């Protein structure tokens, strides 16, 4: 039960801690990071005493503090927690603390709720911190305008949740990217000023910051203390880390995130409320893998998290594109079933007028010229083969060449002055209009119900530029995301067993807001395994592998033109929610045999791959990749050793297998079902030759401490190493 807290309260779980002092006028953050343990009254007094910074020259005459809701009233000259105005007045927020509730959970963590009020703007702010048992700290705020306030609306220009960082947090890692090259990491030192990543695409985008991480210089996958934040919102976003010369109280800098608000977007009249997106903060002493592990546990603990085996998928896109033909697709389904596919997904091209991407969006009925009897002949055939049936949709979009656009041009999102240029030959529907929402819900409900669809691949193939309502030219980005969430929730409520994939030109909408309503993401439209080695690794920085689609494409990549070996493509696609995306009719028998073996291997290993702890090795060369998944109890592991390019070094040297215990004893073997890789050597290391023939017993001190001399592979090659603990 909630209780009135003491002067200093803390939330503690999984080795991490948030400590807040309930000072006035605004509580301050004393500590966020490593668990401080059980503190006695004297310890708490010491923590408060050491939270007082020096009083600097040419500074406010009261020492600066970094509060839970920092503003200029605290002497904070950085980005404020919120700012706005009321017809040009009430521009200097001065919130004051009114009350708090605090409770802890028996299994660790708990909640701290703080209530603030700002008399000048008549705003009430409720800030909530929730620490889960896995160490993920979630912060969100509700900003409400008092019923008794002046009738002039308050224009909220920005609202962020911010937490402090120590001086040793001095290096930044976040992400950029483009279509088919999402989540490309970029690192640099933290300097004075603000490192700000604004997202103005109406969705997180293929260049999404994804997870803003700050750590001790040189942090890696397995080493270094790190702090991170992710904003769980599927629209415009703002991430920042900011360091001022005077610091942030006794801290050095601030880390924060929230929604990027457009001018005039949130206008709070008396009684109105704005809720910030949830921001998930994480700290780890064990590098990026430690952060990833916290997020994976957090997501796997959700009630709606997929529990059953993740079915092997075949998606028709790179196999047939828009060339839909019942006979061809039935034959494709038969080959898919023969190699072990469990879910057949019909991608773009099935609905009215859709022979290319220039027409048909918005008309969610099977094209009568291609499907005179609807989709049932294919869907029934797929189910008769033992697979479930999935379908591609893009409900938020419309082509001008469609019955919907011709009938309801006013439903398109855009300014009154007229629509701007198309992107992908399409525009965006204004989901916040009740008639648009109702139409889409009715269309999707009918599709899923008529064809007994088990899975929707929900795409979003353009950015939201000039996202305003035509009536009044008011900003619409926030309302669009809220309507999307309602639409997804409504479809799921009507069809509880339905699974939905979040796709947005590949990985353009990957965030924990959309993941609250979907069952997996499509991380990239690129199936080239060289690119996928990086894309999948960094997607797993936030999401566990069972939520990440990983498909095997054709030997020649449709997005890069690169030709790669079967084994390399198959091994790369194994580490996720696996699938196939190619025309199996063009596969030789030898390739079909390998696909069948890979399918069986996936079914054998997915209990480990989809529940275990992903691990990544810190290697000196970017040409080499060693990653794997270790069972939560440490009993089993599977590793991929891959080379994506040449390097000057002929020998890799002893390389540690991450995630194993030096005190245990293990057996390992090389899985050979997918065929041997191509080596750049005369003979393999002796241990590898032995492990290809049978299980090889080795002590954990060799595997985890000394390391194995790894074979020298040719570029674009990989091998699988399976490990089991010898009890």
From TrEMBL:
Domain (Glycosyl hydrolase family 36 N-terminal): residue spans on this chain: 27-268
Location of the region described as Disordered in the Swiss-Prot/TrEMBL record: 77-110
Biased composition (Low complexity): 78-99
Family matches, as Pfam families: Glyco_hydro_36C, Glyco_hydro_36N, Melibiase
Catalytic activity line of the entry: Hydrolysis of terminal, non-reducing alpha-D-galactose residues in alpha-D-galactosides, including galactose oligosaccharides, galactomannans and galactolipids
Ranges in coiled-coil conformation: none
Limits of the Glycosyl hydrolase family 36 C-terminal domain: 629-717
Class in the EC hierarchy, top level: hydrolase
InterPro entries in the cross-refs: Aldolase_TIM, Alpga-gal_N_sf, Alpha-glycosidase_related, GH, Glyco_hydro_36, Glyco_hydro_36_C, Glyco_hydro_36_N, Glyco_hydro_b
Cross-referenced PANTHER family: ALPHA-GALACTOSIDASE C-RELATED, GLYCOSIDASE FAMILY 31
Family the UniProt entry places it in: Belongs to the glycosyl hydrolase.
Protein name: Alpha-galactosidase
Organism (species): Streptomyces prunicolor
